[in-house]
Amino acid sequence: MAELSVIEWRRKVDVFVDLESNPEPASRLCREAQGRLMRRVAQLTDEDVQSSSRLPGWTVGHVLTHLARNADAHARRLSGALGGHDVPKYQSGEQQRSTEIEDGATRSPGEIIADLQSSMERLEEIFTASMAAGWPNGHFLGGGHYGVAGCPAHRLREVELHHVDLGLGYGPLDWPQEYVDWELPQLLANAPERLDSSNSRRLVMAWLAGRGPLDSETTPNPW
Asked: Which terminal CB of the chain, N or C, has fewer other CB atoms within 10 Å?
């Protein structure tokens, strides 16, 4: 019975939509995810924003600021592609990303939430324009490891994972099935490189093979 269920799951995965190669369904899911996020954070207080998130060293304000700047980064790539320009997510690289997050995380809740909303609305406008234009220049890499056509899928990942990281009641069981069908095989594929020791790899192997529970200390490095 266990073997049959695995076969059925693999058949299901074989026909899933690869969101990175299909920006139209990915952008739809991303719009829905951003809407869920916005509804959850719209009424946060100063205390809420300053509270610790599930990410070490980051407050809720850090996570929300990161999500706003990440929306800008994907909008930058997609907007560039519409004009025939291959541009990076962050013009000055990781230092720009880190500085913008730190500088923005201490703002008032109203400023942070308004910033997040306007950044997401701008990104969705560019989704609409890109769809109308047929997602042009989808192969542009912008100095990264995935084409610009993959931006909606990668943005979806950011929103779904960081929504959980906020610690505000949204959890893995709330993730949409289409997102899980796309993401789970990728997480399984890159799990070995995110495990720090040979012992942790063995323990994860045993767990995946149904040969024992997975202890709380055996955890892959964050995605």
From this structure: N
- 196-199 long-range Cβ contacts below 8 angstroms, 24+ apart: 196/221
CA 155-174-121 angle, 5° bins: 35
pTM > 0.85: yes
Amino acid sitting at position 16: F
CATH code (residue 114): 1.20.120.450
Q: In the prediction, which pLDDT does 12 show?
A: 54
Q: Give the pair of three-digit tokens for residue 88.
A: 């990076």
67, burial (CB in 10 Å: exposed 0-12, middle 13-18, buried 19+): buried
Domain enclosing residue 108, as ranges:
22-176
Q: How many separate domains does the chain show?
A: 1
Domain presence at residue 122: yes
C-alpha angle 78-84-86 in degrees, rounded to nearest 5: 65
User: Considering only CA atoms, which of 133, 157, 131, 154 is closest in space to residue 144?
Assistant: 154
Give the model's pLDDT for residue 5: 54
